[in-house]
Amino acid sequence: MYFTTLDRALRSRPTLIKAVIYSVASLMPLVIWLQTHSDLLYYFQHETPPGQATYIFSKLLGFYVISLLWLQLLIAKLPKSNSHKKKVKPPTNEHVYIGFAVFLTIFSHILCFIFAVFLRSGKAPIQLFVPNLNQDYYHNSISIGAIGLWLIVIVMLAGLARRHKIIIGSVMHKLAFPAFFLGLIHSFLIGTETRSFVYFAFVSFMIFTLLILYLYSVSKPYRTIITS
């Protein structure tokens, strides 16, 4: 009953719901980042460790990686509009576009992190992208993020395989869910933003909405969907 009501609500205003989801995904990482690093001019007006400003910017990109992954997973679980049921071709390949945005953001996040470490130590930390959980707290936290990174690579390759109707592609593409949660854990362990109430509220909101839409999705065989 509850999911039938939710189904009606989701189908009644799909454009508005998507607009809200996109707005949240676009704005919340910036809000959290600015709340934690409110005095951005400090990094340009005072002497700071080499690469510090670049590292701080890489954290913003990291937030956007998680937010875009959440957006991708959430949009995929939303019910299709009636226009899709009438076999009207959708205007854009939304899933591919968001996936491409995830790829660009991950690449930028990694590039900024490598550059920041290089400016500080004079060495590119390529070895950090080989997961190793038998280290200290900081490096273990990075390794968790590295595992999530390689899962995303697999997910993207699986997406290409799925478009060519390779069956294993659909199975491997589901690794996007653990990749998202590994990214959350990485962010929680390594970031100072976890002390922010806004960060906690946003993370809770992402997990709650994904859980609700996942249950909504798996309940489909057991409910009657009313469509116009």
UniProtKB/TrEMBL annotation:
Top-level division of the source organism's lineage: Bacteria
Sequence intervals crossing the membrane: 16-35, 55-75, 96-118, 138-160, 172-191, 197-216
The UniProt record lists the keyword 4Fe-4S: no
Keywords: Membrane, Transmembrane, Transmembrane helix
Protein name: Ferric oxidoreductase domain-containing protein
